[in-house]
Amino acid sequence: METIQSNEELFSSLGFSATPQEPVDQGLEMEDFMNLMVTELTHQDPFKPMENTELATQISQFAAVSGIDDLNKSFTGLSSSITSDQALQAANLLGRQVLVPSSAGWFGSGDTLKGSIELPSNASNVTLRITNSNGALVRELELGSHEGGALAFSWDGYDDQGDFAGSGLYQVTAQATVDGAEMAPAVHVAAEVESVSLGGSGGVRLNLVGLGQVSMNDVKEIY
Taking the domain 103-189, which CATH number applies? Predict the structure, then answer.
């Protein structure tokens, strides 16, 4: 699964602003700069070569004063292309379930509520608790001891007395003992993608049944 940056994050990570700036005549052209860079690399001490970060810094500094306006125009086009790709990816998720961080999960009749408990390390006494909208305990699942990592779970909709709890939004929490101490590990739940929203600083967002909107960057797994 790919992580997709928003347009603003893309510009920021590359060190560029989305606002065009007036070009500055520095006298030194890109060809001259590259010739100087090649000369420097050719005559460098082989036992103390230039670090990748140092090389990248020199190139970015030159670009910042020589061609930032043209570069920003190029990245504006690239940004539009990335947004289109995000939209296509999101459209393919309609009707499918995605795993996202959440302490709540939607249970539909005839379905199962599934997800995972994120254990930071080996744990014992792992317990999953499902409560209804009134805060009443519906089901408690004793899952025993497990190694660190994602521990998958599923709930069939029946309470501890064997009665069907019905459709609705339920709170899902976990408890575990790690290194002798009680803790509440993070929980991820699966939810169906109902629709997709585009635009804005949040980029592409998924509308999940019962949970509302989440960013595509929050998706941990696709079912």
Answer: 2.60.40.4070
